[in-house]
Write a sequence for this structure.
């Protein structure tokens, strides 16, 4: 036998290429396949693992094809996993989830409750369907993956805006039209609690409020300003706290629309006069929706205050701005200041020190205005503009003023058209 | 003609010590009632007239407190609703949720249903009462306010956003009259079957990584959550940059 190692480039190539149709065959040839000892046990030859790589180095694939790294183009296409479809045909009963739909989309709270509804159906058995009941404008596109079997969208001018009386009449009608096993509401300040209480009073049901542990038989809810756990039989109407169950994430659902017969809405005794303009700086910073925050990169403070006023933003500041005496301590955002929950946060001339970043952890959209494209705030931001803060704020104020002008003249035009 | 305002009060619970106190929202309701009706405000409690907490409410400047005398286990609702039926009230004020008992916040709703009155929930202020209508400010999340008008008579539940209650003066509180009437004797029959225990801490939700392989789990545990940053505008003019910010603000409905 000669000592010369004879390489078979084609065999090596096939063995390196796990996608090759002959790969498995060559691999088992190389490893000799399954070898059984005299007692019938599988024996492994430990030196015969792996294969010789292109540069002659032995490679061992210990992931056995389980690697998470994308394997070329093929897996990129396969990445969008189609979740299994959960189908409910002609359900015997429904569980109604009246979603808050803040901004027209399901909130995390709503999704938890949808998950709970499926848990209740699984425990009770029977052919039940989960219905998302929504009012007003609906922008949600992912009802199917949130666990919604049916969507009941109650539309009509009477239900728009703040219309709890009309909405509760519609819900009472739903109760009459469908076989409803449970009504689930988020116990939230977005209107879920109000609507649930109205419906309970209307239907004469005793609801469980602030419920947080629910199964088909028993409900544990908070009482006496959250100092007491009350255990009782699961009632028909439940108002649920956040994180009462896990949201659906492994199935897809039909989200078929269902309809409600016409509701005769009686004249409202409560009339909505719209939102009030509130002074943005009077809103507690932790609650504010839109914050314009100033850091060491602000040099024209009068302009900054003016910009906050024009944009209608609550003012915030980094610690440096506060320490230098340009802003009051109560406006400091960050670890030693306030932790904010704004939806949009504009950081003007803030570098993004970790102490500051902690404070904006819950912010949805960060916009950075900075001269330094490499700073940490730019890495965090959804939109960063690199430039001098004074110039950009001036342009921004101009745009806001223009916008106000046009919307005012639009209104005037509408009014004159109406007249 | 001044309007008749009734404010319902209950025994509160201090969040840290657990001692009885005047309930926060109820005392805000009394404060609002005092603003609307002055000392003509009728303050009603269903329970025991011996309750010392009632003196704390009375110390806000009330000459008398109406007490519907009843046992602790009795349901407060029938007593209050029959009392309200005998009074010609225009506005009834309550808290959003009581600080003791079930804390369900259903009282104002059930009263409204029984009396057939409208209810406005989470009121921050009642601005004006005129021509059989009241202008009411509702407290919304994120410090926003909604203005609504509602026909008299109505029930309002007062939010924490309403004006804080004035201090309570001990002496006048002690001197106030407790006018006892007989309340209801109806037991709360449903509640008897409940079991109550001190609240357990709720478990924090863990971030469960549903990864199939060890490599995925490792990556989930170590990788920085925010990898790629958003859009960066470097070479555009200040005007274009401002426009991009402004478009985002409009898209997010911050500016309307
Ligand atoms: C114990 C401790 C607690 C702390 N707690 C907090 C806290 O709660 N909150 C907090 O904010 N900080 C806190 N800090 C301070 C923190 O570490 C940073 O020092 C601080 O956040 C930096 O503020 P800054 O980004 O405004 O300033 P800098 O880091 O000086 O950043 C200024 C930024 O402005 C940019 N800039 C300069 N000129 C312009 C211009 N003309 N136009 C546009 N951009 C410009 C620069 O490029 C730079 O990125 C804490 C520190 C410690 C030690």
């Amino acid at each position: 036998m000669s000592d010369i190692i004879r390489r078979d480039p084609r065999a090596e190539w096939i063995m390196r290429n796990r996608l090759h149709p002959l790969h498995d065959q060559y691999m088992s040839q190389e490893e000799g396949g399954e070898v059984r000892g005299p007692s019938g046990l599988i024996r492994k030859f430990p030196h015969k693992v792996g294969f010789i790589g292109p540069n002659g180095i032995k490679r061992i694939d210990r992931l056995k094809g389980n690697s998470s790294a994308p394997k070329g183009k093929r897996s990129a296409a396969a990445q969008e996993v189609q979740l299994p479809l959960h189908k409910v045909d002609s359900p015997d009963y429904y569980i109604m989830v009246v979603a808050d739909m803040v901004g027209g989309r399901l909130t995390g709270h709503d999704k938890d409750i949808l998950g709970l509804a499926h848990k209740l159906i699984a425990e009770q058995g029977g052919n039940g369907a989960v219905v998302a009941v929504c009012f007003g404008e609906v922008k949600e596109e992912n009802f199917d993956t949130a666990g919604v079997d049916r969507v009941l969208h109650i539309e009509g001018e009477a239900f728009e805006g703040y219309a709890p009386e009309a909405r509760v009449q519609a819900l009472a009608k739903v109760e009459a039209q469908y076989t409803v096993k449970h009504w689930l509401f988020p116990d939230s300040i977005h209107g879920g609690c109000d609507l649930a209480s109205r419906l309970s009073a209307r239907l004469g049901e005793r609801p469980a409020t602030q419920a947080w542990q629910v199964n088909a038989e028993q409900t544990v809810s908070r009482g006496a300003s959250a100092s007491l756990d009350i255990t009782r039989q699961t009632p028909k109407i439940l108002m649920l706290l956040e994180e009462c169950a896990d949201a659906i994430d492994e199935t897809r659902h039909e989200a078929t629309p269902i309809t409600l017969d016409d509701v005769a809405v009686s004249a409202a005794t409560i009339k909505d006069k719209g939102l009030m303009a509130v002074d943005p700086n009077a809103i507690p910073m932790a609650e504010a929706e839109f914050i314009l925050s100033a850091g060491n990169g602000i040099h024209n403070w009068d302009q900054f205050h003016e910009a906050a006023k024009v944009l209608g933003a609550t003012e915030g500041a980094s610690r440096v701005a506060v320490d230098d005496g340009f802003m009051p301590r109560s406006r400091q955002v960050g670890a030693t200041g306030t932790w904010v929950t704004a939806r949009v946060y504009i950081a003007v001339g803030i570098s993004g020190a970790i102490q500051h970043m902690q404070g904006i952890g819950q912010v949805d959209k960060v916009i950075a205005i900075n001269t330094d494209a490499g700073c940490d705030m730019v890495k965090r931001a959804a939109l960063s503009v690199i430039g001098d803060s004074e110039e950009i704020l001036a342009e921004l104020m101009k745009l806001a003023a223009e916008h106000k002008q046009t919307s005012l003249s639009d209104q005037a035009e509408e009014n004159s058209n109406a007249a | 003609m001044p309007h008749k305002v009734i404010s319902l009060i209950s025994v509160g619970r201090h969040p840290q010590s657990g001692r009885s106190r005047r309930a926060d929202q109820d005392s805000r309701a009394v404060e609002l009632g005092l603003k609307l009706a002055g000392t003509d405000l009728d303050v009603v409690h269903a329970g025991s007239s011996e309750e010392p907490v009632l003196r704390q409410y009375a110390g806000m400047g009330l000459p008398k407190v109406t007490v519907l005398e009843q046992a602790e286990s009795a349901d407060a609702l029938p007593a209050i609703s029959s009392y309200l039926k005998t009074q010609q009230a225009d506005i009834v004020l309550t808290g959003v949720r009581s600080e003791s008992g079930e804390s369900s916040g259903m009282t104002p709703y059930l009263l409204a249903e029984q009396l057939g009155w409208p209810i406005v929930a989470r009121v921050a202020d009642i601005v004006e009462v005129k021509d059989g209508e009241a202008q009411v400010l509702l407290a919304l999340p994120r410090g926003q306010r909604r203005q609504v008008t509602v026909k008299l008579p109505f029930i309002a539940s007062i939010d924490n956003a309403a004006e804080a209650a004035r201090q309570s003066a001990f002496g006048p509180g002690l001197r106030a009259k407790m006018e006892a009437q007989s309340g209801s004797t109806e037991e709360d029959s449903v509640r008897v079957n409940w079991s109550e225990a001190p609240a357990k801490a709720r478990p924090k939700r863990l971030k469960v990584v549903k990864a199939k392989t060890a490599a995925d789990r490792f990556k989930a545990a170590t990788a920085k959550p925010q990898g790629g940053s958003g859009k960066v505008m470097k070479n555009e003019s200040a005007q274009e940059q401002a426009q991009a910010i402004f478009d985002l603000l409009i898209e997010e409905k911050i500016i309307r």
